Amino acid sequence: MIPGIDFTCFGMKLQEIRSSLHLTRIEVAVHTGLSKDTIYKIEKGMVIPKYDTLEILGYLYKEDLLTLLTFYRESRHVYEFNQKIDGLIYNNDVEALSRIKKQFDTLKMEMDTNSIQLIHGLIEQYEMFITGIETLNCQKTSESLGYFLKALSIDRPTFRFESWRQFKYSLFEIRIILMLGIVESMLSEYELSNEMIRFCLKTLNNIAHKDTEKFLILKCYYNLSYNYHCLNEHRKALFFSDKGIAFCQTHYLSYALPHLLYRKGIAQFLIGNKRYLTSLNMSIQLLKITGHTTLAETFIRVTYDKYKIKLS
């Protein structure tokens, strides 16, 4: 296998695309001239697909599979950490952060000096990313920004923050861009934050969604709604909260739904929409149902203090 590319996950993605088109492997074989066995092996990550094969499949699937392949260039040694790291992004789990750091230490000890340099680079990138989250949790916002930028600079000697739009990114690096966008929001750079988060949202919406990536998409919608709230663009805040709520409904998810409903309610209130109380009270009730009573009480108190809206 080619080092640094996860063909198993790439194959799973191809299988998802085929299934979404309601095509069997036999039907794909008939349309493309490829053998059913070849299609099976590609989907199971058992072979390296040829350039021509990806071109042919891409024509049938209406996808640029050569570009898609770049999103799966992460090493198998570190790919398994993606889900755990996603948890750090959308759950802010400090205990999980400590466990992941220990796992990285173990992985580094197991890697000998002859290991592929690309893998070492990816490990270093993951470490910088985790350290960035750790410093962000400690309220060291500017320091955290530096670690995220270092993570993107590891295999890009010419990387500069001001020219971030000029580079291509792996699927893992999209997560780093998302965290940069969140940090920029914390620094009140809302326009730049929106640009970075919308970039991430577009990329994530163009791939097959694993559950963790669905959660990241919802985090994008929530942060965009919040940023537009801070910019006093309340109709846009309402637009992105509605998009997030619709995504929850489509994928049967409750994650972030109370927060999105809260952002929707506040946006409705600020533009004079009388349905704001319905959205806000739904947010509170969902928090209570899911056991987040302390957060529900915080929402109730803050909403009254800032807007004189009584919730229950």
TrEMBL record:
CDD domains: HTH_XRE. It holds the Pfam family HTH_31. SMART domains: HTH_XRE. InterPro entries: Cro/C1-type_HTH, Lambda_DNA-bd_dom_sf, TPR-like_helical_dom_sf. The lineage of its organism: Bacteria, Bacillati, Bacillota, Clostridia, Eubacteriales. Residues 14-68 form the HTH cro/C1-type domain. This is Helix-turn-helix transcriptional regulator.
